[in-house]
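Researcher: Here's a chain I'd like modeled. Treat it as a single chain, no partners, no ligands.
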Amino acid sequence: MKMMKWSIVFAVVLTLLTAYMLLDTFVIPEAYVEDASKSGQQPVQVVVGTVSDSEQDNSESTVTEESGDDEDADSPDIQLTTYRINDTNVYVADIVFSSVESIKTAFAQDTYGRKITDKTSDMAQQNNAVLAINGDYYGARESGYVIRNGVLYRNTPSDEDVLCIYSDGSMEIVDPSKVSAEELLEAGAWQVFSFGPGLLANGEYLVDQNDEVGRAMASNPRTAIGMIDNNHYVFVVSDGRTQESEGLSLYELAEFMESLGVRTAYNLDGGGSSTMVYEGGVVNTPANGKHSSERSVSDIVYIESE
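Model: Modeled as a single isolated chain. Structure tokens:
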């Protein structure tokens, strides 16, 4: 009888512990104190200077939307174009800016933490963004460098490629096993993302036709960011998993980025997260389960409205 009572008590405790672990993993939001403090450092901010514009010939693009004031040299020029490739709708925002500070990021609910999420469109509105895409969903992982707007939040490396956007408007894909987050910050990192993989580096392919993110299908909605030249970037989002759009493989995405003249390109969080917002409206068709609706995510990359 006593053994039976202890068995019941053990079963109840085990059930409660399992329930808490599931809630902690998938439900309970948790705001983080910046991981940089683990190394005895406080979050550090890098001062970003202004550099001159880089003019590019974009004559082959079919522009569907355009923003930017020609009289304001400091205002980013944005051209939004829709492409149809591989039975998929792909949306490209071509951005020319004078300072890398034009490329901003924001956390859901303005809070750095785990399982704290919001829709890309809502974050765009809250941050007065004229253009926004989903970021790397840093909150779904406990490793991977996080530097946002020149501030170091997480210095724990992961196994994935890291994208660095520097204060001079350049972009680089780096191996986190060879450089620390603190070293990147010291080198002038303005934004650092840890999702991957890298797609192109100096015009060379970093993926092949067999590469994929985790166990995802080969053709998916995708979000990517690429650099044509210093201060000349593209934000790219493709539809997928719908009757209208099949989606792209990583290799197809890399090929498409190269066709735009992109030299360095990086894959951000995709699938149901892939969302582009322009002037307050969702441009693409997000594929969130059975419904075409936005998935809430941890963060966005955006251009602030002037």
